[in-house]
Amino acid sequence: MRRKLLLGNWKMNKLVSEARDFALASKPLVGTALKNNIDLGVAPTYLSLDTVKKNADKGMIVAAQNVHFNDHGAFTGEISISMLKELGIDWCLIGHSERREYDNETNEKCNLKIKALIANDMVPVYCCGESLSTFEAGNTKAFVSEQIRVGLRDLTAADVKNLVVAYEPIWSIGTGKNASAEIAQDICSFIRSILKEMFGNVANDIRILYGGSVKPENVKAYLSCPDVDGALVGGASLKIDSYEGLLTNIL
Ligand code: PGA
After folding, report:
1. Of 99, 125, 233, 246, which is best to mutate to test ligand 1, by the most ligand atoms within 8 angstroms of its C-beta?
2. What pTM, to 2 d.p., does this model score?
3. How far apart are CA 180 and CA 51, in angstroms?
């Protein structure tokens, strides 16, 4: 039985003081979520990770938004896995479409990062999803399949048992133009079939999230789909009221 997961992606938002206020305000939500077999998490900026980890409920998942695949060295502006682990952070987003678009994050680079995270017992949340032109050309499945096959290359079934995949069609991110629940289900179930082909039955345990303009009003429709195990939420995860709404609407 896959547990549901609501993960907020704060992107480049919130001062440390704002992140602390959110972490404190979110405390009562985590117990309610866990009692209902739902995991709750947020991915703050690097600067706020420590503050959120220290001020949120212990059961709150705190994820980084990126990491380097090397452990240390001359990589100006980068952060290593051991730096995250020192703060008690053991989750990390990989391959978000904004990083793919603005920071040259390729499937191959994602693969190096995912392998490094897994080797360090961390949970990668591997993001995939197609552009509007790919969607309109009817090439979504071929595109997403390539992202999954290359991003998860050279891994074993044991390696991927805690992995999370997030399907986020780029045309639905931050646009208010969300993919229908039918599209989300179709692609998430397609992703599960690729995972099954690559890794066997462990694919039934891997959580697959939908992301893209998820809001309290539509979250339930997505999470009612059999292959959608949760949501990766940007805009609607920033305010505590709306974050709470995401949870209460799926209880
Ligand atoms: P959005 O962002 O919910 O604001 O569309 C989702 C994401 O980019 O993870």
Report:
1. 233
2. 0.98
3. 36
